[in-house]
User: Which sequence fits this backbone?
């Protein structure tokens, strides 16, 4: 977003940068692409800030409308996020199997392209609606509230207890956009490294629960689980944590209990 920054409380500001520093520039500016990268595609200043503020404001209005619809239908919505390859869809598939007969569940599946993940979730007792962000949404790397709203006519809200919004795999943008959910969770794989909470604090700070996945691989990795927990505590000290393995099913019942506890 260039010099525009949105805080976690929803406030935004523009980072104005005065280039009249009190030091001499003795380096050559003749090759700006080589020295500083090609910034020709970026526009900074008040106009850009106004546009971004408008985007967020419209998104937040639609998110509120989504939440009202969920509340009127007595549906609890959860925004489920992760990086690509963290095991989110595999874990969700096992979750749907275990929730059958316990919670009436629907899924909004977000992907840039293909129906691969949506197909994996079909036949598991949940209503599934696919959003491909490449189809009319500019190939966005996240779901936003208007995208989620576009999928609601394909979800039987009145017949559901729980709606899981499986966001596009990305540790950055999904954390910035309210989609109208009541709670947020993320799947983090131990194969990603202990430092991820420090490198992507907005994501780890924005969620109510972190599912530490692929725990079955721990004996085979040079991974410091204690260091990860310390890093997570540094950015989000109050977050709930469940250690899981989508492959073995470890921790999935605790995750299902967490989802059930969200219900009134």
Assistant:
């Amino acid at each position: 977003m260039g010099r525009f920054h949105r805080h976690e409380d929803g406030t935004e500001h523009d980072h104005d940068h005065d280039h009249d520093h009190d030091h001499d520039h003795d380096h050559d500016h003749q090759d700006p692409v080589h020295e500083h990268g090609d910034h020709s595609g970026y526009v900074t200043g008040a106009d850009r800030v106004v546009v971004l503020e408008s985007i967020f404001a419209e998104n937040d209005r639609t998110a509120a409308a989504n939440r009202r619809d969920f509340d009127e239908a007595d549906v609890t919505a959860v925004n489920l996020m992760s990086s690509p390859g963290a095991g989110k869809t595999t874990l969700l598939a096992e979750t749907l199997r275990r929730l059958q007969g316990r919670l009436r569940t629907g899924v909004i599946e977000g992907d840039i392209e293909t129906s691969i993940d949506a197909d994996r979730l079909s036949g598991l007792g949940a209503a599934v609606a696919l959003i491909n962000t490449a189809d009319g949404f500019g190939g966005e790397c996240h779901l936003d509230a208007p995208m989620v709203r576009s999928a609601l006519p394909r979800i039987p809200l009145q017949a559901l207890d729980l709606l899981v919004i499986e966001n596009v795999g990305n540790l950055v943008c999904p954390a910035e956009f309210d989609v109208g959910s009541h709670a947020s969770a993320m799947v983090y794989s131990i194969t990603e490294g202990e430092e991820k909470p420090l490198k992507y604090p907005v994501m780890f700070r924005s969620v109510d629960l972190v599912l530490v996945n692929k725990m079955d691989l721990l004996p085979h990795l040079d991974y410091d689980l204690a260091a990860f927990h310390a890093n997570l505590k540094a950015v989000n000290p109050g977050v709930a944590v469940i250690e899981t393995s989508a492959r073995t099913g470890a921790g999935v019942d605790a995750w299902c209990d967490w989802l059930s506890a969200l219900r009134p």
